[in-house]
Specification:
heterodimer; A: 264 residues; mainly alpha; two-stranded antiparallel ribbon; 2 strands; B: 288 residues; alpha/beta; six-stranded mixed beta sheet; 12 helices; 10 strands; 41% helix; binds adenosine-5'-triphosphate; binds magnesium ion
């Protein structure tokens, strides 16, 4: 169940998308987001939908992984859909008592939900096709290009955080099992008893996280880590023809979306 | 009464790029009163296998019967299974969470719905089994204890459930020799005095040799041997091939035999080795 969390997971592969430079992918994701937010009607959404689906196909990432990434968000999705559906004023198409659905509400609800789904899809696609190391290298150089101070430290923190997500999940499962072996019950009972049942899980989890952080800091210092100053890298990032092609493709997407939005 | 596994396989993350078949088609029976060792190379599936004994993992294929009850059958309360089969994880001290030793050990008994009086007597008894003085340790925080003491508290936490079967995953990992001997002594006592059925996972062949009657050997998720300890260790060449050692004394006798001494090589403990060497040396002296 916890294994379903796909954030920070990487699916090895050699597809077009896997081979792109991480910087390209990061910038492309932002351009894609701009295109997504520029779209406001069915034509725009059609274009974005086709683009998103083709990207997933191109990456050869199993659909199941993408769906698993979206699934934890279902409450937010349902809420978004519901709020728009029932609270938007406009032409009523269905009514029962004081509950009513308007045409504008339906439209808004569908668009907003799709927007969220696509956002998650494309960001998961970024992490699913990029190794965490490449990802943070990419983030670091994008941040540097934007003149963000302490870019290296920020990127390092992200690398470590990403690196420890699976470890933390593993640890959680282990402690959960250990407590279940002592008769603990994590999935039944009322809200109060459920919250209480988390204490035997959270206390050991915090302790082990602190222990890990301590050990890691020590290990890094023992290897003379002092932050980003004068640091060179073993693997230099390199743009290739593929990257320029990718840039052209997302730019075209953005421009098409803008044209559809403002001139059609 | 027994734990019976028939054709048990377990696959982690099925149908994903990370699919991992950790154990394959295992047939096994653990009868009441036995003390059994489980060995295998790192990653061979030992921890995966033992989590099937109390239903923490469900077999992807095959069946697990605990005292005749199928653990995946509808309506079976896993709590009842876990009451019967106590499982002590690797580094169990990492699961401690309460403010006092007493409260931590009482966690299990409380979960199975025992009242205060019963809980108290169970905690007392469990602490006695692992040689922790009730009056002295009861009210102190488990986090202030030494590594060996913490581990004993964790062990007591499982013992307080009064399981019929006790499964221990590398109970001596990371302890100093004294802490190790203490834990092993407690395990032996639990077997002898309380008549508990014991399954112990270990990387130390010497501990295994001295402790258990029967040995289960797994390699890459498959059962390789399931036999009396002496018979298993007689297969030293095969064991070596799958990355496992033999007990130090067995190794010693093998070296002696290699050098031409007419010693038996199915020796497990120091005591046996001593007797065998003396036998050969004295016999040799008599010949001369
Ligand atoms: N929760 C899990 N998810 C996915 N794979 C797992 C999980 N737990 C174990 N594995 C894999 O299953 C295999 C068997 O693991 P297991 O922990 O049972 O081995 P082990 O014999 O206990 O090893 P060790 O001696 O190191 O404790 C390993 O290859 C491991 O990577
Ligand atoms: Mg293990």
């Amino acid at each position: 169940m916890l294994k379903d969390i796909t954030i920070g997971q990487y699916v090895p592969g050699i597809s077009f998308i896997h081979r792109l430079d991480p910087r390209t992918k990061i910038v492309a994701v932002f351009l894609y987001m701009a295109a997504l937010f520029a779209s406001g009607d069915s034509t725009g959404y059609l274009v974005v939908t086709v683009f998103t689906i083709s990207m997933v196909f191109l990456s050869k990432v199993p659909w199941l992984m993408i769906i698993k990434g979206i699934r934890p968000l279902w409450i937010i999705l349902v809420l978004t859909m519901g709020l728009h559906l029932f609270l938007t004023q406009g032409d009523i198409i269905w009514q029962m008592g004081f509950v009513k659905i308007t045409q504008q509400g339906l439209r808004q609800g569908v668009f907003m939900t799709l927007r969220l789904v696509y956002l998650v899809t494309i960001t998961s696609l970024l992490t699913l096709t990029t190794t965490p190391i490449a990802l943070t290298d990419g983030i670091e150089s994008v941040l540097k290009a934007l003149f963000v101070p302490v870019a290296h430290e920020l990127a390092m923190m992200m690398t470590i955080a990403l690196r420890f997500i699976p470890t933390l999940i593993e640890e959680t499962e282990k402690i959960m099992k250990a407590q279940m072996a002592r008769g603990a019950d994590f999935d039944s009972g009322g809200i109060v008893s459920r919250a209480k049942s988390l204490i035997p899980l959270l206390v050991p989890l915090f302790l082990s996280s602190f222990r890990r952080a301590d050990e890691l800091a020590m290990a890094m210092e023992a290897r003379c880590y002092r932050g980003g100053e004068n640091r060179t890298r073993m693997k230099q990032l390199q743009m290739t023809g593929l990257d320029y092609m990718a840039f052209i493709i997302v730019f075209v997407l953005l421009i098409v979306c803008i044209i559809i939005r403002f001139w059609m | 009464m027994s734990i019976v596994l028939t054709g048990v396989s377990h696959t982690y993350s099925p149908n994903s790029p990370y699919e991992m078949k950790a154990i394959k088609n295992i047939d096994l029976e653990i009868t009441e009163g036995e003390i059994i060792g489980l060995i295998g190379h790192t990653g061979s599936g030992k921890s995966t296998l033992i989590q099937h004994f109390n239903g923490l993992l469900k077999p992807t294929e095959g069946r697990v019967l605990v005292d005749g009850v199928d653990i995946v059958k509808k309506g079976v309360k896993l709590k009842d299974i876990r009451k019967k089969v106590g499982l002590v994880f690797q580094y169990p001290e990492h699961q401690l969470f309460e403010e006092t030793v007493y409260k931590d050990i009482a966690f299990g008994p409380k979960n199975i719905g025992l009242d205060q009086e019963k809980t108290k007597s169970r905690v007392r008894k469990a602490m006695k089994m692992v040689d922790l003085d009730y009056a002295k340790y009861r009210d102190i925080s488990p986090f202030t204890l030494s590594g060996g003491e913490k581990r004993r508290v964790a062990l007591a936490g499982v013992l307080a459930m009064q399981p019929k079967y006790l499964v221990l995953d590398e109970p001596t990992a990371g302890l100093d020799p004294r802490g190790r001997d203490e834990i092993l002594r407690h395990v032996t006592e639990l077997h002898r005095r309380e008549n508990m059925t014991i399954v112990i996972v270990s990387h130390s062949m010497d501990d295994i040799a001295r402790l258990v009657d029967r040995l289960i050997v797994i390699n890459q998720g498959e059962l390789v041997y399931n036999d009396r300890t002496r018979e298993c260790f007689a297969q030293y060449e095969e064991l070596k091939r799958i990355g496992l050692d033999v007990p130090t004394m067995t190794a010693l006798m093998l070296r002696l035999a290699e050098k031409g001494w007419p010693v038996r090589t199915d020796i497990l403990t120091i005591k046996e080795a001593k007797e065998e060497i003396l036998r050969v040396v004295r016999g040799g002296a008599a010949d001369a």
